[in-house]
Specification:
Helix 2 packs across helix 3. The protein is mainly α and about 150 residues long. The protein is globular, with a radius of gyration of 18 Å. It folds into two domains: about 35 residues, no CATH class; about 100 residues, no CATH class. It is built from five helices and three strands. The protein has a three-stranded antiparallel beta sheet, with no helix packed on it. Strand 1 and strand 2 form a beta hairpin.
């Protein structure tokens, strides 16, 4: 049996028959993808730990708004930008920071206190742009709200 979703169920989300349904607000439609069927491996557990640690940082609302504004400016300048939300850009920046500073940053153990104590470039959009983790856009100097 094929699972179908009628257009009238705008906010439907969840799992059904091996598929995951979710509403995408920018595209204004409900999307469906197959549920992953991966065996549990050490790498999967590492990525799970990293994802939980990143989520535990819990950036401030002002910081999130700076990322939203930055992403909107990027989309205005380049139509090929396919990042769906500020969070995906934020995670991409954190991975770039770990690649640039492998001795100082481990995403498995990163905390908000560590970011502030070590004065890491991810503490604001402005410092991330100045460090080369994010592309330069006009007006980035005003996106200085801290994590």
């Amino acid at each position: 049996m094929k699972a179908t979703v009628k257009e009238g169920l705008k906010g439907f989300s969840g799992k059904l028959d091996g598929a995951i349904y979710y509403y995408h607000p920018r595209l204004k439609c409900t999307l469906m993808r197959r549920a992953p069927k991966m065996p549990v491996q050490a790498q999967n557990l590492d990525y799970t730990t990293i994802a939980r640690q990143i989520k535990a940082i819990a950036p401030s609302e002002a910081y999130r708004n700076d990322f939203r504004n930055y992403l909107n400016h990027l989309r205005d300048r380049d139509d090929s930008i396919r990042l769906p939300s500020w969070y995906s850009l934020y995670v991409k920046m954190l991975w770039a920071m770990q690649a640039k500073y492998p001795d100082a940053v481990s995403l498995k153990t990163i905390t908000r206190e560590q970011i502030m104590a070590q004065n890491l470039p991810c503490r604001s959009v402005k410092t991330a742009v100045e460090d080369g983790l994010l592309a330069i856009i006009p007006g980035y100097q005003y996106m200085d709200k801290e994590i």
